[in-house]
Specification:
Helix content of chain B: 40-55%
Oligomer: heterodimer
Mean pLDDT of chain B: 96
Largest interface: A-B, 43 and 42 residues
Number of strands of chain A: 8
Helix content of chain A: 40-55%
CATH topology of one domain in chain B: Rossmann fold
Mean pLDDT of chain A: 97
Low-confidence stretches of chain B: none
Strand content of chain B: 5-15%
Distance between the termini of chain A: 42 Å
Strand order of the largest sheet of chain A: 2-1-3-4
Number of helices of chain A: 19
Structural class of chain A: alpha/beta
Order of helices and strands of chain B: HHEHEHHHEHEHHHHEHEHHEHEH
Strand order of the largest sheet of chain B: 2-1-3-4
Largest sheet of chain B: 4 strands, parallel
Structural class of chain B: alpha/beta
Order of helices and strands of chain A: HHHHEHEHHHEHEHHHHEHEHHHEHEH
Radius of gyration of chain B: 21 Å
Strand content of chain A: 5-15%
Shape of chain A: globular
CATH architecture of one domain in chain A: 3-Layer(aba) Sandwich
CATH topology of one domain in chain A: Rossmann fold
Number of strands of chain B: 8
CATH class of one domain in chain B: Alpha Beta
Amino acid sequence: MPSSHEEMWEKLNLDIDAHAGLLEVLGKFYGDIYMSQQGRLRGMEYLDFVLSEVHGLRIKELQDAKVSGRKVIGTFCVFVPEEIVLAAGGIQIGLCAGAEVGKGEAEKVLPRNTCALIKSFVGFKLARLCPFIESCDLIVGETTCDGKKKAYEIFSDYSPIYVMEIPQMKNFSDRELWRSEILRFKTQVEETTGNKITADNLKEAIHLLNNRRRVLQRLNRLRAAVPVPISGRDALLINQISFYDDPERFTAKIGELCDELEERVKNGTGIAPEGTTRLMLSGCPMAVPNWKLPYIIESSGAVVVGEESCIGTRNTRDLVDESAGTIEGMIDAILDRYMKIDCACFTPNTERQENIVGMARDVGVKGVIHYALSFCQPYTMEAYKVEKALAKAGIPMLAIETDYSMEDVEQLKTRVEAFVEMVR
Amino acid sequence: MKLEILKHFEDIGERFLLDISELDGTDTKVAGIYCLFAPTELVRAAGAIPVSLCGKREKPIADAEETLPPNLCPLIKSSYGYAVTNTCPFFAESDFLIGETTCDGKKKMYEFLGRIKPLHLMHLPYSTTEPHAISFWRDEILRLGRFLEESTGQKIDRDHLRFQIRIHNRIRKLLERIARFQAAEHAPLSGLTMMTVMESKSFFVYPEKYLDMLGEFIAEMESVAASGFSPFEPDAPRVLLTGCPLGKGSEKVLRIIEESGGAVVCMENCTGVKGLDLLVDEEEKDPFLALARRYLQIPCSCTTPNIGRINLLDRLISQYRIDAVVDLTWHCCHTYNIESRVVGDFVEGREVPFLHVETNYSTSDVEQLRTRIEAFLEMAGCRSNVRFANSRLN
């Protein structure tokens, strides 16, 4: 990454030396996992570029937008309604992190047995390594799980944070709770941005974000072809970048990539040899640069053709109904859409099991790898039920619990290889 | 000194089972509960009898782990283990269960428990100060009311509910008075004995009889207190134990503190004084709203931010003249574990020594815990002596 950004990073009060070290490691990691792939799509060059500039040009864009009066709002969860932020002229950025770098700092304020994702975002803040966090005018947390809910209390010692309450059930009163939280959020966003949300700008925001979901849905349909036209790693990267990149540009670029994919599918060109075992990932989100498990899977004679996770279909499966014309109607439509999210924080969340089985059938996989971050109780507890539901459908499942460290790579590889061997 | 009346508290579980067996063949239903958030007034108003379910021993955990992941708190695993092995007599007596979404582990465990017995899950709001919280929680209490009415076949009469509210308020006041004996310079009961007394609050069939028993106990305690008797050494550091709930079978940390010379004069947890100072407003026209208001104030770590716990600790540290605070977290209880830092910062800010202990129900770490606690109390004891000397000088 060009050092011309260094001035900007200094202004954002990053730890320049540690940050340089992070970028170096990230670059090498990316090279090993991504650039080593054969027969990648031309369209991935865009993603390579975006990632290489993830802390550079994209941050510069955010800074420039801020100068022009736009506000940046950081989030940790697909539950935060981006439509509201976009309608008010704000820019929403996903802040979840997938690297271990700030772990030491995080463990000074959080218990060690907190999940890696939580320790990572707290660590990035404490170690002054994340220009996204430092660019935010508002950071939004939510009460999805015990760990996040309580970690935000600690995080708030270092940076103000606005917390949304996420319902845990899907009864009538939960809908009303969530409506009241969306309206409270709307007021907050209007205050932060200084812009009023109108029927016009909200309609436009809904449409734009639906388009981003549509293009990702298209990607998901195309990647399910036989032979598989794109690696799971690349598809994951596209989903990851959807949380950082400008939504309009991203949608256009991924549209082009899908055109290219379509061509491949027509020609029967695959990324992996025919007969490569098709698998699906399900469970916790994998934030940049958490590519460990997909890489292990795809170097074990299998290919990943779907991610049932927040950085995956959970974020793209459902659209907001676009037929409403009033703000109230649109808020209702947003409410409906977000209440469909099948996060493991819900109970009993049986729809997730149905969605997983349905997806595994649709994309035609030989097996599912359930991925849970260590100490993530909602997903580790659901793994048991997911396994039962899949078994009923005749689909084997492997439950993996891991974190961001590289210590267990060989052990995981052995387990994944054995699983691939078994389901082949 | 051993009070005769303590035997009633020690045997209260058996008494409960006896009393319940006499009701066999009647329509009386038993509601198994797991948490302070279950509004027992409402359960009684529907004619059911609430009882706390087992979850304080290591024994059934291995059976629970066949279904539940190991990285889960022992209380949840033990509760599920008792249920799945059908070894808890109170569970066996329960006609239905009331769960609540206090933490991720329990919330998801109830999905499994609901397969064994009918279970009603209460949904707790976590941001208790936001505008939606009170009406949402009142709705949840009403929803529980409908479940209770269906399960017992008995309508909840508002006047009867108000009657139950008054009774339960009286119980809380008496328990609070009992706890307060320990605030005296010579605390008359050991922490372990007080734990037995406090645990009784979840095991009675007849509230009036229970009130009488508490009244009698208070009368006896008054004479003990007047005699100046205390089971502790005069210079024993006065310890406040806070954090996760504990009870008979999981009293490991409490026992070690007292064996190491500490005087546990107060427990700020669900089996201790948490919630005893919170009464239901008897004057409020809408008893459901009154219940909602009271229960929403319980300073559980599942709420965010849990200011109520800090305020309560602040008051208890002064009231009970606390020399040291020990914060107990059961292994993998994320909410109490993470909140421990907030609590620790506060307690140390008040210049009271603070120790955070994370453990489970096994005995494998007892000696290690003992070493840490002894060292901690030694340090706290020095401070206690200073305070002692100062109070003599004044």
